[in-house]
């Protein structure tokens, strides 16, 4: 790719749109996962008794285990959301920019 | 490709079997745990075998550094996932659970949260870098 082509891609309004949309989605998903994670960590730090309760009377499994598993599942789900958006919306926009400039 | 998946599966499960053997084995300390030694040698042998097989197929610098550019996204994902999981689960989690019981499992949440976060942040940087040039 030549420097000239870089300039043309940078000036393309659709490239600015792609960059903006992608950044917005990525920042929001980062915020979601950070809020979930730090809520969990702060709960452990300040109210450990909440998570230390047994899941049922006489059970050795505490509430913390299913909550932890749910957080791990959330990590997979949010990755799936991003990959789906990238495969459908972003790649299509990317291809359009490439097709018109190359 | 099938061979690669096969060896990846071996590499994935062998240390698990080996670790389970050490935990359930009755011989404590002094006596020689034959099955553990055999599994260890098998694992190292399989790794060397894969390396030799891969080296046979390497003919140029491009092959050496980037596998000739022929690695698909899925294969790359498998490699990253394997690397990440083996370090975290076989070193980190087993060590933490040994030290502090099941509370150590919190580590698995920490690194799993870190992964999508890296993905998202790279997605942001990927579009910011060309704008800065």
Descriptive terms for the model:
heterodimer, A: 102 residues, mainly alpha, elongated, B: 133 residues
Give an account of the 3D structure.
- The complex is a heterodimer of chains A (102) and B (133).
- Chain A contains four helices and no strands.
- Chain A has helices spanning 3-11, 13-46, 48-52, 64-101.
- The mean pLDDT of chain A is 87.
- Chain B is flat, with a radius of gyration of 19 Å.
- The model of chain B has no long low-confidence stretch (mean pLDDT 76).
User: Which strand-content bin applies to the residues of chain B?
Assistant: under 5%
Q: What does the radius of gyration of chain A come to?
A: 22 Å
Largest sheet of chain A: none
How many strand units of chain B? 0
Oligomeric state:
heterodimer
Q: Characterize the largest beta sheet of chain B: strand count, sense, and whether it forms a barrel.
A: none
What is this structure, in a nutshell?
The complex is a heterodimer of chains A (102) and B (133). Chain A is mainly alpha-helical. In chain A, 84% of the residues lie in helices and 0% in strands.
List the helices and strands and how they pair.
The complex is a heterodimer of chains A (102) and B (133).
Chain A: H1 3-11, H2 13-46, H3 48-52, H4 64-101
Chain B: H1 2-24, H2 34-56, H3 61-66, H4 73-100, H5 106-132
Helix pairs in contact in B: 1-2
């Amino acid at each position: 790719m030549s420097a000239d082509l870089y300039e043309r891609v940078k000036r393309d309004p659709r490239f600015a749109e792609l960059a903006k949309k992608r950044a917005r989605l990525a920042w929001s998903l980062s915020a979601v996962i950070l809020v979930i994670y730090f809520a969990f960590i702060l709960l452990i730090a300040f109210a450990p008794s909440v998570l230390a309760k047994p899941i049922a009377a006489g059970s050795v499994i505490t509430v913390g285990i299913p909550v932890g598993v749910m957080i791990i599942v959330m990590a997979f789900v949010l990755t799936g959301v991003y990959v789906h958006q990238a495969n459908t919306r972003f790649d299509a926009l990317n291809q359009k920019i490439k097709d018109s400039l190359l | 490709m099938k061979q690669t998946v096969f060896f990846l599966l071996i590499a994935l499960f062998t240390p698990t079997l080996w670790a389970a053997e050490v935990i359930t084995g009755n011989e404590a300390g002094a006596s020689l745990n034959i099955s553990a030694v055999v599994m260890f040698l098998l694992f190292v042998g399989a790794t060397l075998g894969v390396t030799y097989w891969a080296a046979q197929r390497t003919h140029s610098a491009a092959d050496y550094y980037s596998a000739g550019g022929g690695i698909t996204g899925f294969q790359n994902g498998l490699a990253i996932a394997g690397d990440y999981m083996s370090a975290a689960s076989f070193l980190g989690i087993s060590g933490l659970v040994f030290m502090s019981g099941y509370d150590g499992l919190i580590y698995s949440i920490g690194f799993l949260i870190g992964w999508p976060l890296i993905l998202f942040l790279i997605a942001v940087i990927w579009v910011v870098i060309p704008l800065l040039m």
